[in-house]
Specification:
Order of helices and strands: HHHHHHEEHH
Number of helices: 8
Distance between the termini: 54 Å
Strand content: under 5%
Number of domains: 1
Largest sheet: 2 strands, antiparallel
Strand order of the largest sheet: 1-2
Amino acid sequence: MDVAKYRRYADGWKDDFEEIDATVATTMERLGLPLLRVGIAVVFVWFGALKVLGISPAGGLVANTVYWVPPELFVPVLGVWEVVIGLCLLYRPLIRLGILLLFLQMPGTFLPLVILPEVTFVEFPHALTVEGQYIIKNLVIIGAALVVGGTVRED
């Protein structure tokens, strides 16, 4: 193959790649935010419902963290709070309320790292237990909520 023919072939491949890349990026841009919003909503509704039903694997962690409130009261109330967050995120006019409720709730999710370090760390400060990992993943939820919250003025 001569050099000119190779360049035409390479340029054609590059153009094809650019077109595919643009299509993929546009699709990701169109679907990403709605999927992010629905994904956060599903997590909150699901995890909250488990607390309301008394079958949440995190129920004991919550009860031991907020030990000054009776767990039979606090855990289901927290569960309802989380379900409300999720439902608000699913209904566009209520996203602001959902984000507000989420950000009021989030600091409490980090309390076990301080109150129960023996439960959240294998070795402080870098080796987390499963419970600690469950808590740290909330940083991703906070970032996702900021992205979703940044869209509430768009119509």
